[in-house]
């Protein structure tokens, strides 16, 4: 039976979360919104519309949303050539693929951002599919992106593991009945990740790779 290794990208495979924080903080500032950077950090991982709702509330002037998102996208794009994958991120994906796992990226990134992120990871040859927030009606923390990813590779939830770095990732995994594994490299505390549903937490991709034999990936046998 097939197994799926599902991965968030920003903050999980690529060291990009703080660049997103800077881009959103500046876009919000230019839009007249003084939002503390730590609050922006906690919202990273949500799709753009959900992020703005989380930070500014339901009663915000929604006519600004497109301008704020464009401001973020424009500034973040200036970092594309400087994006770097975390140590051993590509090795982790390749190891899982060679062990029979179908590797799927599950991300809230736009198509343009995803192209830059995939260049940074440099493991396209082992990535089976990609599921983005644009593919579904509701992004993380709703289970829709993970459920869509599983449908793309025809794998049942109990045959999958999802790796992410935010509480939104872990909540989405739990709601999709998929085992969630958290990484600390995105900057979210261990306690927050476990409370959101992570069954195991590692420092970064290299840490997960080093402990792969005792990780939740080994509790999903090949047959």
From TrEMBL:
GO molecular function: hydrolase activity
Source superkingdom: Bacteria
Protein source organism: Streptomyces zaomyceticus
Record lineage: Bacteria, Bacillati, Actinomycetota, Actinomycetes, Kitasatosporales
Pfam families reported for this sequence: Hydrolase (PF00702)
The protein, known as: HAD family hydrolase
Keywords assigned: Hydrolase
InterPro entries in UniProt: HAD-like_hydrolase_sf, HAD-like_sf, HAD-SF_hydro_IA, HAD_sf, PGP-like_dom2
UniProt KW Phosphoprotein keyword: no
